[in-house]
């Protein structure tokens, strides 16, 4: 009696062994390393970079412990932080700006384990230090901007097709075009419907008033919002690349939010500065009519215009009147480099994509003699960087911004533009900075509290239930191994609430064992034979274990679905822990009891 | 070794009036403190900036206060974080200054007095996030209750489901009451702790309910009245209840003592939750069950439930 078939023992032993293999990497610790990745879209890091990095490090008198190629970047391990820092300077200097050399920590897990995809758990920011940002994308601004752009597109198209039109105005959620008669209305409708396929184009003709109304259908608005978030994420990626952070996290959260986590970042001020700059470039026409400008300065800005300030070389700002329509935005910029113009003044050279090049060509052709303004918009406030006079048609998509800027400023502007502009402005709505020493402390405190708790519970169980208690303690340890293995395997990021959940789950997991042990005692008290007591004890306890764990699981799942951040991290571990505890309490402990007592004559049970 | 080997059933149900009275009083007290004092919401809910600083030698709080007040940042709080060297600052949200600028300003001001200050953590939460967390938290709470009611109603009967949930909410309200009374900070991890207590405490009720159901089916308890059956169930599971709670409490206390400031609120919520969890699962849920008029006929159905056997 109380015998498992052989295959069941093997299955349990196999599951334990597999769990051990995936748990081990967490105990190897980390060593300082460098991560070399590409700093430009056109530059690829190839596996031959491994040798190159090794050679450079050796030339500087430093010996890498290990170096390898992984996921498009090269990682080089060093024995201490001192040689890591020296090697960083040496390698960065030798490779130049095309590559990013970032400080990193790499697990010391042996290669054979890594081959089995056995990796340590990823530590959250609260355990390793770093910066966390939560950005909110300003969706209203994204929609407004798209409407402005549509209005510009309509004007350009009507001009191209030589259709005479009246006012093109952007209302709250639509663009309206006034037309002279039914004939032009039909022509305009045909032309506009052709270029704005995703939008709804309606004609209105009543009381001799002819107009075209362009609206965004819900699907188009949704698409617009999604695109705004996606582009902002790409832009943040580029900007973070410039910072040289290893393993950043950039994820969408909810409808219009973006989480950015930069582990191990020490220079938080710089990170905030570069990420926080919500710069976009806009190209707009300048109104040089002196009368209108004077009127605007006096506080009476004409409809369709905006008053801004232009930066002059002497550092003063002068007012400048601009048309509201945006002709071109940073989205159409392919690359931006800092350099010098023909007068040897600092300048930014821009390369436009084909759409941008076409728009810019038309713009410059139609506006010879007029001024066009390059505006850098940061945090909703625009500043005219330069407003040169158009001397002739500029084709080919090469544009140069020069104006009153220093070399450093030109570099900064180029960096911002190269990194891409944001589709919509973003606000930081949450920000956390965790110092590295606090992270280390959090780990050790979390780990120690779990350890002490575990030891106390295990000790108590062994004293109170003797042999059955030892089995319970082993089952509890097995539960811990299963849980850590599962977390490592699933690549769950371990945070402080996660550690708390591990501790709580262990505390609760012992419940199943206590239920079983108490049941066995009860059976004996009621006069059952030892073998019967074991069988009935486990069988009766199982229904209760199932019920109580499922209700706990329901609570855990609700946390997982509705929680965010800390709560979610907690819930993940909690839910997984409930599952592993059921397995270890019911099967692992039963297997051990069967091995100890099963299939032989026993007079008393040690419980 | 056995601590809780009780030979005769303890007449828990005859204490019904007393325990209900105790529950009601603690519950009313908790609600009173919640209304009168309110919860001391953490930064996740209120928005603002929190800075954690560490000095190498004991910090001088009044000196820090004077320095911060000189910055005219609005209503700020300076308090120590359990030790003499750790200091926490809370600053309100300020227009046109982000937390990066704010924390730099504050740190520079503090460095005038003492250069041994180290910035350990800065947290900034915008005002819009809090409301959302609140609604999400309440939704999670509601969902947990509904889920538990549905599951228990299916596995047991509606009376059990409703009793368990009421007993649970009783625990939750009392924990909240404690946080209000002592004005401990109520933050996201505390919320996680409270939701965990919900799961934990229902676990307790389920174990007792399970035994009640089993007792109703036992032939040798057929002659007993319903309160006697319940008493027997509670007495029989008492040992297990105490030991399970004891070991979970051991774990949680270890977290409270060794886990540091970051885990403090979480561990505190659980510590209180577990103590009341024992009480409510035994002395709140079961009397409620009686009050709702549970009878043997509710549980003993003609169909015999299949036993889940482990071979």
Automatic annotation (TrEMBL), chain A:
Where do the SecDF P1 head subdomain domain residues begin and end? Answer: 314-424
User: Where would you find this protein in the cell?
Assistant: Cell membrane
Annotated Protein translocase subunit SecDF P1 domain ranges read: 229-288
Under Pfam families, the record lists: Sec_GG, SecD-TM1, SecD_1st, SecD_SecF_C, SecDF_P1_head
Instruction: Give the keywords, sorted.
Output: Cell membrane, Membrane, Protein transport, Translocation, Transmembrane, Transmembrane helix, Transport
Residue ranges of every copy of the SecD export protein N-terminal TM domain listed in the record: 1-103
**Main subcellular location:** membrane
Residues spanning the membrane = 6-28, 450-468, 480-510, 541-563, 569-593
Q: What is the recorded membrane topology of this protein?
A: Multi-pass membrane protein
Q: Where is the Protein export membrane protein SecD/SecF C-terminal domain?
A: 426-595
By its UniProt entry, which Gene3D superfamilies does this protein fall under?
3.30.1360.200, 3.30.70.3400, Multidrug efflux transporter AcrB transmembrane domain (1.20.1640.10)
Q: According to its UniProt record, which protein family does this protein belong to?
A: Belongs to the SecD/SecF family. SecD subfamily.
Subunit architecture: Forms a complex with SecF. Part of the essential Sec protein translocation apparatus which comprises SecA, SecYEG and auxiliary proteins SecDF-YajC and YidC.
HAMAP family per UniProt:
SecD_B
Q: What does this protein do?
A: Part of the Sec protein translocase complex. Interacts with the SecYEG preprotein conducting channel. SecDF uses the proton motive force (PMF) to complete protein translocation after the ATP-dependent function of SecA.
Protein's UniProt name: Protein translocase subunit SecD
* UniProt source species: Deefgea tanakiae
Q: What is the lineage of its organism?
A: Bacteria, Pseudomonadati, Pseudomonadota, Betaproteobacteria, Neisseriales
Q: List the gene name.
A: secD
From TrEMBL, chain B:
Keywords of this protein's UniProt record, alphabetized? Cell membrane, Membrane, Protein transport, Translocation, Transmembrane, Transmembrane helix, Transport
In which domain of life is the source organism classified? Bacteria
Membrane-spanning parts = 21-43, 133-153, 160-182, 188-209, 250-270, 276-294
- Residue ranges of domain Protein export membrane protein SecD/SecF C-terminal in the record: 113-292
Stretches assigned to coiled coil: none
Q: Which InterPro entries match?
A: SecD/SecF_arch_bac, SecD/SecF_bac, SecD/SecF_CS, SecD_SecF_C, SecD_SecF_C_bact, SecF_bac
Q: How would you describe this protein's topology in the membrane?
A: Multi-pass membrane protein
- Report the main location listed first in the record: membrane
**Where is this chain's protein located in or outside the cell?**
Cell membrane
Q: Which NCBIfam families match?
A: 2A0604s01, transloc_SecF
Assembly mode: Forms a complex with SecD. Part of the essential Sec protein translocation apparatus which comprises SecA, SecYEG and auxiliary proteins SecDF-YajC and YidC.
Its family remark reads: Belongs to the SecD/SecF family. SecF subfamily.
Q: What does this protein do?
A: Part of the Sec protein translocase complex. Interacts with the SecYEG preprotein conducting channel. SecDF uses the proton motive force (PMF) to complete protein translocation after the ATP-dependent function of SecA.
Under what name is this protein listed?
Protein-export membrane protein SecF
Q: Which organism is it from?
A: Deefgea tanakiae
Q: What is the lineage of its organism?
A: Bacteria, Pseudomonadati, Pseudomonadota, Betaproteobacteria, Neisseriales
């Amino acid at each position: 009696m109380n015998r498992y078939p052989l295959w069941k023992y093997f299955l349990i032993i196999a599951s334990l062994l597999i769990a051990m293999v995936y748990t081990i990497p967490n105990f190897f610790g980390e060593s300082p390393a460098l991560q070399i990745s590409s700093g430009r879209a056109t530059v690829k890091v190839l596996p031959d970079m491994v040798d190159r990095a090794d050679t450079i490090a050796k030339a500087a008198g430093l010996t890498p412990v290990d170096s390898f190629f992984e996921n498009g970047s090269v990682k080089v391990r060093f024995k201490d932080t001192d040689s890591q820092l020296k090697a960083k300077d040496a390698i960065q200097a030798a490779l130049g700006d095309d590559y990013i050399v970032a400080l990193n920590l790499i697990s010391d897990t042996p290669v054979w384990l890594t081959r089995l995809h056995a990796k340590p758990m990823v530590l959250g920011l609260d355990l390793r230090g770093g910066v966390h940002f939560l950005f909110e994308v300003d969706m209203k601004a994204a929609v407004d901007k798209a409407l402005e752009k549509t209005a510009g597109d309509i004007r350009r198209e009507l001009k191209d097709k030589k259709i005479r039109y009246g006012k093109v105005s952007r209302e709250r959620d639509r663009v309206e075009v006034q037309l002279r008669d039914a004939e032009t209305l039909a022509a305009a409708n045909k032309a506009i419907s052709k270029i704005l396929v995703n939008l709804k184009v309606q004609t209105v003709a009543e009381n001799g008033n002819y107009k075209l109304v362009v609206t965004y259908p819900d699907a188009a608005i949704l698409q617009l919002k999604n695109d705004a978030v996606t582009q902002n994420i790409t832009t943040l990626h580029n900007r973070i690349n410039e910072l040289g952070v290893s393993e950043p996290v950039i994820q969408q959260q909810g409808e219009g939010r973006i989480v950015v986590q930069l582990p191990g970042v020490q220079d938080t001020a710089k990170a905030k500065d570069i990420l926080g700059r919500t710069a976009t470039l806009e190209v707009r026409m300048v109104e040089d009519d002196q009368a209108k400008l004077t009127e605007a300065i006096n506080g009476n800005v004409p409809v369709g215009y905006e008053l801004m300030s232009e930066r002059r070389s002497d550092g003063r700002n002068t007012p400048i009147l601009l048309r509201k329509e945006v002709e071109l935005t940073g989205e159409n910029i392919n690359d931006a480099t800092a350099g010098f113009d023909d007068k040897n003044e600092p300048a930014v050279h821009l390369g436009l994509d084909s759409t941008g090049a076409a728009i810019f060509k038309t713009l410059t052709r139609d506006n010879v003699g007029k001024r066009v303004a390059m505006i850098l918009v940061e945090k909703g406030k625009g500043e005219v960087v330069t407003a040169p006079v158009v001397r002739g048609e500029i084709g080919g998509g090469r544009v140069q911004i020069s104006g009153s800027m220093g070399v450093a400023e030109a570099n900064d502007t180029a960096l911002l533009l190269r990194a891409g502009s944001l589709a919509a402005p973003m606000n930081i709505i949450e920000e956390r900075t965790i110092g590295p020493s606090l992270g280390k402390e959090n780990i050790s405190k979390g780990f120690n509290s779990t350890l002490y708790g575990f030891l106390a519970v295990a000790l108590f169980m062994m004293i109170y239930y003797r042999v059955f208690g030892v089995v319970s303690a082993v089952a509890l340890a097995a539960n811990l191994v299963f849980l850590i293995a599962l977390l490592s395997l699933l690549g769950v990021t371990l945070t402080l609430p996660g550690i708390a959940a591990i501790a709580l789950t262990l505390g609760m997991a012992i419940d199943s064992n206590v239920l079983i042990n108490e049941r066995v005692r009860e059976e004996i008290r009621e006069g059952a034979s030892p073998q019967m007591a074991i069988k009935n004890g486990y069988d009766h306890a199982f229904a209760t274990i199932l019920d109580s764990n499922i209700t706990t699981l329901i609570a855990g799942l609700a946390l997982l679905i509705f929680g965010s951040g800390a709560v979610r991290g907690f819930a993940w571990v909690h839910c997984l822990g409930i599952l592993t505890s059921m397995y270890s309490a019911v099967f692992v402990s039963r297997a051990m009891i069967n091995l100890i007592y099963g299939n032989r004559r026993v007079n008393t049970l040690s419980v | 070794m056995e601590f809780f080997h009780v030979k005769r059933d303890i007449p828990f149900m005859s204490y019904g009036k007393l325990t209900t009275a105790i529950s009601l009083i603690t519950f009313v007290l908790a609600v009173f403190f919640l209304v009168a004092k309110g919860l001391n919401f953490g930064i996740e809910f209120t928005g603002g900036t929190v800075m954690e600083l560490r000095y190498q030698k004991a910090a001088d709080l009044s000196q820090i206060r004077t320095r911060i007040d000189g910055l005219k940042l609005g209503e700020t709080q300076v308090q120590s974080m359990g030790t003499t060297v750790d200091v926490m600052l809370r600053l309100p949200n300020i227009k046109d200054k982000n937390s990066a600028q704010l924390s730099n300003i504050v740190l520079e001001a503090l460095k005038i007095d003492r250069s041994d200050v180290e910035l350990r953590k800065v947290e900034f939460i915008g005002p819009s996030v809090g409301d959302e967390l609140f609604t999400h938290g309440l939704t999670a709470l509601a969902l947990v209750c509904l889920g538990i009611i549905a599951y228990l109603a299916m596995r047991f009967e509606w009376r059990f489901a409703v009793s368990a949930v009421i007993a649970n909410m009783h625990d939750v309200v009392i924990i909240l009451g404690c946080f209000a009374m002592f004005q401990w900070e109520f933050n996201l991890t505390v919320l996680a702790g409270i939701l965990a207590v919900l799961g934990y405490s229902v676990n307790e009720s389920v174990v007792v309910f399970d035994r009640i159901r089993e007792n109703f089916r036992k032939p040798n308890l057929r002659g007993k009245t319903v309160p006697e059956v319940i008493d027997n169930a509670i007495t029989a599971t008492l040992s297990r209840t105490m030991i399970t709670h004891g070991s979970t409490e051991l774990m949680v206390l270890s977290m409270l003592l060794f886990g540091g400031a970051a885990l403090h609120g979480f561990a505190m919520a659980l510590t209180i939750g577990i103590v009341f969890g024992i009480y409510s699962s035994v002395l709140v849920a079961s009397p409620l069950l009686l009050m709702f008029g549970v009878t043997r006929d509710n549980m003993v159905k003609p169909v015999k439930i299949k036993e889940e056997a482990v071979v």
